[in-house]
Design brief:
Layout (H helix, E strand, L loop, with lengths): L48 H6 L12 E3 L4 E2 L3 E4 L11 E7 L7 E2 L6 E2 L5 E9 L5 E12 L2 E9 L6 E3 L4 E8 L5 E8 L2 H7 L1 E2 L2 E2 L6 H4 L7 H7 L22 H13 L55 H6 L18 H12 L9
Antiparallel strand pairs: 1-2, 3-4, 4-7, 5-6, 7-8, 8-9, 9-10, 11-12, 13-14
Helix pairs in contact: 5-7
Length: 368
């Protein structure tokens, strides 16, 4: 097989997930991807492909026709729920993900990194929200990634107070949200909706906007629940797939190192990869990275500054408290905090995981 070959599959418009049940996957840091909506067999809502391809900056989320029942977040025909094994931490927001691929299109998978390559006309839908005091899910924003002829376009939509629709917010917004945290406590969170340009800050590969989450390693939970098979049957994935590793959730019963690497992959590697916005740092945090120094072990920063916190190494083996990585993960101060966008509170579960992973390393070992 050629190194960069793409495996393709055409699929019919009539394929539906009417008889399928979406699996319950472990959630990252409390509730992400929980209670994903189901694709309905009875709704007649059709996706507005004209809006996707040629709609410019569509004012209302409802105009795309991606939902049969917008208030209930019920997806339209041929719009399919999916979940990730490990999901990006976003101030404890719970996320509901959907994917749409137009009929008659070819879906590819890169056989090097097993990244799903979606055709023009595809849409990735991610709704962020929190349970209210009664446990009812309340959406805050929905982000769309639209694959148009000119490339991927990221558009953020903020929900109305009555949850009847969401309005385009190209300039982003900061708002106070009364959130229920994983431990059941309530907290006021200063929630940031990114502006259109900030979306590119994370969704960038070789300076081109690209999806982050839908990689085979993060879709295949490896426990036989069958999300991969369901997406194949729906035409979202091809029948034949390249070999790929399986990324665990951080709260799964998997080796500590595997869970830590999965966390860094989904939370950090969209910038920290060899073609990402942070490529000049020399710190590469993809799940498949096999160079210890590139992963940060015994690595000095390219530019120290106050972001180092007076520490010498990105990862000081055996010493989490001396590691720049954990110092920056534990800060919410601009210029120090990592990731730079997408959070205003610390991910305590993530900090505990990465700290335990670093502390478990052999402090006497020298990276090769």
């Amino acid at each position: 097989m050629a190194r960069n070959s793409v495996i393709t599959k055409s699929f019919a418009r009539t394929v539906m997930l009417a008889s399928l049940v979406m699996m319950a996957l472990p959630a990252l840091s409390g509730g992400d991807d929980s209670d994903a909506p189901q694709s309905s067999a009875t709704n007649s809502q059709s996706v507005n492909e004209e809006a996707i391809l040629n709609g410019g900056y569509v004012r209302n989320l409802s105009e795309f026709g991606l939902f049969a029942d917008l208030t209930a977040l019920e997806p339209a025909n041929n719009v399919h729920p999916y979940a990730l094994n490990a999901a990006l931490f976003s101030d404890y927001a719970q996320k509901k993900r959907l994917i749409y691929v137009p009929a008659g299109s070819d879906v590819g998978v890169d056989d090097i990194n097993a990244v799903v390559q979606l055709p023009v006309g595809s849409v990735l839908v991610k709704t962020f929200g929190y349970p209210d005091a009664e446990g009812v899910y309340k959406p805050v924003e929905t982000r769309l990634l639209l694959h148009r002829a000119e490339g991927w376009v990221a558009l953020p939509y903020i929900w109305n107070e009555d949850r009847s629709d969401a309005k385009l917010a190209l300039g982003g917004r900061r708002m106070m949200v009364d959130a229920t945290l994983p431990d059941g406590s309530r907290q006021q969170i200063s929630y940031a909706v990114p502006n259109k340009n900030q979306c590119k800050g994370c969704h960038s590969l070789d300076n081109i906007v690209t999806p982050i989450g839908p990689k085979l390693r993060n879709l295949n939970n490896g426990d036989g629940s069958g999300q991969i098979a369901r997406l194949q049957k729906a035409g979202v994935l091809p029948d034949i797939l390249p070999d790929h590793p399986v990324m665990p959730a951080i709260d799964a019963q998997a080796p500590l190192a595997d869970r830590a690497r999965a966390y860094l992959d989904i939370n950090c590697s969209h910038c920290h990869n060899r073609k990402g916005p942070a490529s000049n740092s020399g710190l590469f945090l993809t799940y498949q990275e096999d160079n210890a120094v590139a992963l940060g072990i015994g690595k000095r920063p390219v530019a120290a500054g106050r972001g180092s916190g007076g520490r010498d190494f990105a990862i000081a083996p055996g010493h989490a408290d001396q590691s720049i990585m954990l110092y920056r993960m534990g800060s919410i101060e601009p210029g120090i905090a990592m990731p730079e966008l997408g959070r205003n509170v610390n991910d305590e579960a993530g900090l505990a995981l990465i700290g335990a992973w670093i502390d478990a390393m052999d402090s006497s070992a020298k990276p090769e």
